[in-house]
Design goal:
Blueprint lengths: L10 H9 L3 H16 L6 H8 L3 H7 L3 H25 L4 H16 L11 H8 L5 H24 L4 H25 L3 H19 L1
Length: 210
């Protein structure tokens, strides 16, 4: 749901193009920009509708509440990441490259032209603002569980007779990835994510020797 920055000469054209899109799509795109740049709690409905260029009633015609809009944003960000992962996986050869496709997809997400720079994982940023029990937190948890399951699937192909090692290594790699994203978000650049990929390569090489 993140849109790239437009060159100054194209701002008017980009604005007209956005206005031609369906209201729900424009609202989700505006929510993606504002929630990631400013945070969920700090972003009000008026800010989102103004950014989307729609009337407030259009928001409530598409979403019953701000909470529903937040969940839709989280779902859309998950699907956006899955698209990046699938594109990487299409070019991967074998289970080792499948594991690295997960890391590459996170790096691709970090490389987007965010309005106020890279601030880490948008899903975790949002979850940190939501109260315990909020359905949005469950959306984020499912995303993280799916990422770990994808890692485990590739590792299972690599180590078909070593299920305990598959589970432990998938958890290890998911912790490595999440830690890298947290540090990268604090530092505002993707260096830590690229270093995490290098460490993942070493982990995979170690599996081959064991």
């Amino acid at each position: 749901m993140q849109e790239s920055e437009e060159p100054a000469a194209d701002v008017g054209t980009a604005s007209r193009r956005r206005r031609r899109r369906p209201a729900r799509e424009r609202l989700l795109a505006a929510a993606a920009r504002r929630f990631y740049a400013d945070g969920v709690a700090a972003t009000g409905i008026d800010t989102i509708t103004a950014d989307a260029g729609v009337a407030k009633m259009s928001l409530y015609n598409n979403f019953s509440s701000k909470s529903e809009l937040v969940r839709a944003y989280l779902d859309a960000r998950h699907e956006e990441w899955l698209g990046l992962y699938r594109a990487r996986l299409d070019r991967a050869e074998g289970p080792r490259e499948g594991v690295l496709a997960v890391f590459d997809a996170y790096a691709d997400h970090a490389a987007f032209a965010y309005e106020r720079g890279f601030r880490g994982c948008g899903l975790l940023n949002a979850a940190a603002e939501l109260p315990a029990g909020d359905e949005g937190r469950a959306v984020v948890r499912r995303h993280k569980e799916e990422v770990e399951a994808l890692l485990a699937g590739h590792l299972r192909d690599l180590l078909p007779d070593r299920p305990d090692e598959v589970r432990a290594t998938a958890e290890h790699l998911s912790f490595l990835l999440e830690g890298a994203m947290a540090r990268a978000g604090l530092e505002g650049e993707d260096t830590r994510v690229r270093h995490a990929r290098e460490l993942a390569v070493r982990v995979l090489e170690g599996l081959g020797r064991s």
